[in-house]
Amino acid sequence: MPPTQRPSITKRNREQALREKREEKAARKAGRAIEREKRAASVAEGEDPDLAGIVPGPQPRSDDE
How many domains does the chain contain in total? Predict the structure, then answer.
């Protein structure tokens, strides 16, 4: 018994799905690059982004006793 669909149709559908997945991946990658640039622009020059906003010294108590 022959298959219900021709192999060329199934191959075309599979390739279309792969193409869409590649396009979505490229869009996510471009979005991450834009976000990275925004974060880099928001940090002052010469300041470590991991340490931005940290206040040295004793920290306030978290409990309200």
Answer: 1
